[in-house]
Amino acid sequence: MSSRLATGGRRIDRSKRLSFSFNGTKLTGFEGDTLASALLANGQDLVGRSFKYHRPRGIVAAGAEEPNALVALGQGDRMEPNQRATITELFDGLSARSQNHWPSLQFDIGAINARLSRFLPAGFYYKTFMQPRAAWKHLFEPVIRKSAGLGPAPTQGDPDRYEYFYAHTDVLVAGGGIAGLAAARAAAEAGARVLLVEQDSRFGGRSATDGVVIDGTDAEAWVAEQVAALSAMPNVDLRLRTMAAGVYDHGYVTLYERAGDRDPGAAPVRHRLWRVRAGRTVTATGAIERPISFAGNDRPGVMLASAVRDYIDLYAVSPGDRTVVVTATDDGYRTALAVRDAGLDVPAVLDTRPDPKGPLVDAVRARGIRVEAGRGIAKVRGTRRVTGVDICAQAGEGAVIEHVPCECVAMAGGWSPVVHLWSHCGGKLLWDETAHHFRPDPDRPPTGADGQGFAVTAGTASGPMDTGAALADAVEAGHRAAKALGHDKGAPRIPQADGTADGPPAAVWMMPHGAGPELRGKAFLDFQNDVKVSDVQLAAQEGYQSVEHTKRYTTLGMATDQGKLSNINGLAILSDSLGAPIPEVGTTTFRPPYTPISLGAVAGEARGSLFKPVRRTPIHDWHADAGAVWEPVGDWRRPYCYPKDEESHRDAVNREITATRSGVGLLDASTLGKIIVSGPDAAAFLDLTYTNMMSSLKVGRCRYGLMCTENGFLFDDGVVVRLSEDSFLCHTTSGGSDRVHAWMEEWLQTEWWDLKVWTSNVTEQFGQIAIVGPKARSVLERLGGMDLSAEALPFMAMAEGTLGGIGVRIFRISFSGELSYEIAVPAGRARALWDMLLAEGAADGITPYGTEALHVMRAEKGYIMIGDETDGTVIPQDLNLGWAVSKKKSDFIGKRAMERSALTDPDRKQLVGLETEDPALVLPDGAHAVSGQTNRFGQQETLGHVTSTYWSPTLNRSIAMALVSGGSRRMGETLDFSLEDGRIAKARVVDPVFLDKDGERQNV
Amino acid sequence: MLILRCPYCGVDAEETDLAPGGEAHLTRHGPGSDDAEFRDYLFQRRNPRGVHFERWRHAFGCGKWFHAARCTQTLEVFGTYSAQCSEPPEEIMTAIRTRRPDWEMPA
Ligand SMILES: [Zn+2]
């Protein structure tokens, strides 16, 4: 059982005791602990259950690569699942819960999966749960959802604040170990601006724990000296708790700063996402130790050898009284020495190499520690935790030579450089035959806009694992990065490290080498996703050759740790099974972020009202004061209706319609898109962009126009007004103004650049108010200033003048079928005009109406609405708008497409009106007309669907429009519409113009 | 996230300030074209791994469309140039050939 040692602990401050809770139990730790070290100090070595088999799992690592120790951190609205205990700094009041177990961590019902593991092989989701389909829905899925998945998702909104931070620098150094510090110093002394970031809460990385001596001083002192020197330089910034998360195109790097995690609720910002542009990025990201694949390597108490000495040295935590070291490297001996130095027992060092030698081996032997050469572990004993190991020959099949009792097993499988950042944007890797790892290929870096590499690796991240070579590499990297950017002051000095390089490691991918199925089936590669050696071998047997396919089939490396520990071992097993060398099998793709980052940081400030800007009309405040119900239209907020007192929305809409049709209504139409198109070729240009002829439009007149894409599909509509010989005002839909303006500019700039045309989007420069209804003219006439008689301003004409002293442009156009004037007014005067119209119209009962009344009135007239009657596959002819498609013009956008046979098919869906047999029944939006036949898939055959459907207070019945196959031939037919409850509603196909077919109401 | 220099306003624009417009130098086939030409104009794209000519718009800047010649594999940018041309100008071709001597303009 793990415990706190009486002395030592480089990072902890024993005078500052912190209390925290785990699964509701109160525990204590020290300032400087991580949650993982504090849990171990309290003897809590069972921290969770594995994903698939619910096997008990303990802490394996001491850093970001930890696969097992994921906890739900915090409570209530600050609860966050899947947080790694190894990088969670302890603070007073921290609350954590273990995950993926039910009903409890100690007793877990899902652990039965482990006994069924024979039936849950690689690809089990694909194999087992495909058939029968009903079983999937009712049996497998509910069970899997209950028992699978790691932490629960939070149910409440995140109360904390997150932000983005933008930065530019010459050289970004990712990693603040000795290599990062040396590289930063070399770059900074050459004159470059340097930003150095370190994910941990301290600089120096592993150097102090590993007993590194540089320039005659111990690492801790050397690191302090470098940090002090760098801090004093004006061209250097240092940041702790900041991880380089992703490297992207052209030197764009995201950093993830955990600014407030130790102070929940009190810190002004919890996480900060840095968006950095760096001239060069130096990846000084160090290396990660590999576990070893032997049976039972996932039992709590089996740890990385480096993590064992981290816990002892940094936190004074004993992982157990007796630690067996199993190693393929000299480095494992450092752990043996650290364990012994802490006064703990090392019953044996099992070295897979037949003839271990060198200074570290000698030092261990000199301490009287038993070293067994050519040996490995056949099997770990113990269920909840390690109780001992069975020793075997590494070269054999696992025959047990001896049983050695112990509480901890330290695995030293060799080191792999952290190549993630290098690889994110295309840096390539080399397989190192001596060190048995992938390392960055310096000749194939990720490249920037100039074609030059923009990333440089430094230190152990480059490959060399001994301190002297790593430091030399780092200084050179920092200097080279600065020099590439034109900073070349002085010559860098390379710090000298004491000691000699370690001897070569052995490649140990399976322990023992000849392990049979029984052992392979208990040797885990991916601890978090429960992928074993046998799973990868099975995948290879079943024909998987690509590492990317094998990854997805077995789920190797697909957990939240993204295979930081399992990648190379899994790859080696696959390579062995396929009989292909490792570099040929290759690695899976390294994708950002390096470790998971919070969704809050990704969202930054873009939440709530800042998620998307809202556009407000100049009359917005009046609508708000009048109690408008809002409807989002594009980025706008428009009044849906204005309920009075206790009035329902539907009653309000009906009242607004009736008041408008019988008296006068007022609509804020300011959101309509308004684009001025001017220049000598304006008319010719509009002839190309609209399906109609616009060049024949007379000055002062209006014409309803349609715009299609080059595919022939209708995408926007609106009234075009000819303001003068060479200028037009094009109205667009409310949501479409930016899109249409961009569309016009694209054609002008990239296809018809010879045309002399200028466009400007003046949507927000003008307010627009529609005054609608039989009494509209008299209200305007009382305001005075303009002759608005039918003779002076006929239907589809425009007039400019002043109305009640305000300069206006009036269009006599109608979207309701009523006598209607749309009045454009400079935005700053829109509210004044609105107020004036309300006051003047009060005697006539003038009634503001919202978008729903607008919709019902346009539907009563059979007018289409872009987005209701159109869906990106509808052409004007489908909507009976063929009259607006010019046959005279030789070209317009979409003309060629309309010649395609599919667009002239008489069975295309066409717009019709519908009257339900039951006039009180309003058809559901989108309801399908069904033929009663079934198609070849056994589904109901549909004839079409409802596009607009309303209660019409004017006609005192429901009305609808629909797109129906061969619609115009079906007038008078009765169609069946299927309702959600399975009932059928019958409706008769009619002319979509329900009201005033001859247009007498507006023609007055 | 790419950086492209807008040839109109001279700004080195971040990709978030730009809107992509797909392959450059397409020939519009309108009324009178046959079905194959029209299909290719609407849908057929080269999508090469290597040198590519693209349309971009400085959407959150000056609003202008422009062309970029770049390598889709290495992300190297050979240059940006006016949208008002139907083939890359000579200096862009020279820049590409300098960096990619074996490259040939596809037919
Ligand atoms: Zn620009």
Automatic annotation (TrEMBL), chain A:
InterPro entries: 2Fe-2S-bd_N (IPR042204), FAD/NAD-bd_sf (IPR036188), GcvT/YgfZ/DmdA (IPR028896), GcvT/YgfZ_C (IPR029043), GcvT_C (IPR013977), GCVT_N (IPR006222), Sarcosine_oxidase_asu (IPR006277), SoxA_A3 (IPR041117). One of its GO terms (molecular function) is sarcosine oxidase activity. The keyword Nucleus does not apply. It comes from the Bacteria. Residues 521-604 form the SoxA A3 domain. Residues 619-889 form the GCVT N-terminal domain. It holds the Pfam family Fer2_4. GO terms for biological process: tetrahydrofolate metabolic process. Residues 909-996 form the Aminomethyltransferase C-terminal domain. NCBIfam families: soxA. Belongs to the GcvT family. This is Sarcosine oxidase subunit alpha family protein. The lineage of its organism: Bacteria, Pseudomonadati, Pseudomonadota, Alphaproteobacteria, Rhodobacterales.
TrEMBL record, chain B:
One of its GO terms (molecular function) is sarcosine oxidase activity. Pfam families: SoxD. Signal peptide: none annotated. GO terms for biological process: tetrahydrofolate metabolic process. This is Sarcosine oxidase subunit delta. It comes from Oceanomicrobium pacificus.
